[in-house]
Write a structure and sequence with these properties.
The structure holds two protein chains of two kinds. Chain A is an alpha/beta fold. Chain A folds into two domains: 93 residues, Translation factors (Elongation Factor Tu (Ef-tu), domain 3); 126 residues, Rossmann fold, CATH 3.40.50.80. Chain A has five helices and eleven strands, in the order E-E-E-E-E-H-E-E-H-E-H-E-H-E-H-E. In chain A, the strands form two sheets. A six-stranded antiparallel sheet of chain A has the order 4-3-6-1-2-5. Chain B is globular. The chains are: A alpha/beta, B mainly beta.
């Protein structure tokens, strides 16, 4: 056994206390929490936070959540899907009330990030609550006045399950180069003329950017959706180095 | 549930990595010793648990990094990696 000196972990990323300021019901299964965090250092769109809960007996549970708000916004938003399993999500998605406090550290991650300084087309692919970090990018894009071509291809189960539906419609109506394509895979409202199949190579090649345009691609959602979309885009000729992925795991939560 | 756990992406472990590295390391490029493929740590396949994380090359599935957190400290094993490149910050 080697003799080692005790090394203190870097204190660059301290745990901070977040206070819930507002709870926004996004869909029947999804809510967003607006958080007040003293001395928040700011973030880049696509980054996440770790949230840690401690029970009375000292037991700790921790989970990562994408940041859904733009860096320009005053408060930090995280979007949480209601799931029965897990140690953190059931609390954040159901039990939490305004005024609750919990521990949070961040911002975290330097790979799955986008900045409005980037001028290449922005190609976003989302499944379910995987839209959250991509929404941070779109909110940032609008706040920064970036007018380069952007596309969100977003798969939801039904019309009522579309997270940020009204805000996405408003962003797409700004005529600033953003197009939003919804696909509703399980149930479509009467008169729906949009996409209704799972995101596949045919859809991505028909609605997406050409590989020649070298779009920056971000894919976020359940593991299967992310892997099939990434594979399809590589087969269509997109450079794997320009595709960044964030898998949420099998539940999509 | 399937028997083989589904991987996440390396960027999911950025919080754990930040406890150990003084720089944001998920953007750093790691070269696999098995296939010599170089990619950001954030793009590696991540198999994680409460105690630590296993990072596999997204190209050949070779284990490039193992990181285990114990109450006493951190174990980092990188024998499956040829090199780690951290870009100098322009400040």
């Amino acid at each position: 056994m080697l003799a080692t000196e005790k090394v203190q972990p870097t204190r660059k990323l301290p745990w901070r206390t977040a206070t819930v300021r507002e709870i926004i019901e996004e869909t029947p299964r999804v809510r967003s929490l607006s958080l007040d965090i003293p001395d928040w250092p700011g973030h880049r769109p696509g980054q996440h936070v770790d949230i840690r809960l401690t029970s009375d007996d000292g037991y700790q549970a921790q989970r990562s959540y994408s940041i859904a708000s733009a860096p320009e916004a005053a408060e930090l938003l995280v979007t949480v899907e209601r799931i029965e399993e897990g140690e953190v999500s059931p609390y954040l998605s159901s039990e939490v009330i305004v005024g609750d406090k919990f521990e949070l550290r961040g911002p975290i991650g330097g790979h799955f990030v986008w900045s409005a300084f980037m001028t290449e087309p922005l190609f976003l692919v989302a499944g379910g609550s995987g839209v959250a970090p991509l929404m941070a990018m779109l909110r940032h894009r609008a706040a920064a006045g970036n007018k380069n071509p952007a596309l969100l291809v977003y798969s939801s189960r039904s019309f009522d399950d579309i997270i940020y539906r009204k805000e996405l419609a408003a962003l797409a109506a700004r005529s600033d180069g953003l197009k939003v394509v919804h696909t509703l895979t399980r149930q479509q409202p009467a008169g729906w003329t949009g996409e209704k199949k799972r995101i596949d190579p045919e859809m991505l090649s028909r609605v997406g950017f050409s590989p020649k345009e070298q779009p920056r691609i971000f894919i976020c959602g359940p593991t299967q959706l992310v892997e099939s979309a990434a594979r399809a885009l590589i087969e269509l000729g997109h450079d794997a180095g320009l595709i960044k992925t964030e898998r949420f795991g099998p539940t999509g939560a | 549930m399937s028997e083989k756990p589904l991987p996440l992406d390396g960027n999911s472990a950025a919080g754990l990595l930040s406890e150990l590295f003084a720089v944001e390391i998920t953007g750093a490029s790691i070269t696999c010793d098995g296939c010599h493929h170089a990619a950001p740590i954030g793009a590696a396949r991540l198999y994680g648990g409460r105690m630590g994380a296993v990072f596999r090359c997204a190209h050949c599935e070779n284990v490039v990094v193992r990181l285990v957190r114990t109450p006493e400290g951190y174990w980092l094993e990188m024998k499956g990696a040829r090199s780690l490149f951290v870009q100098a910050r322009g400040d």
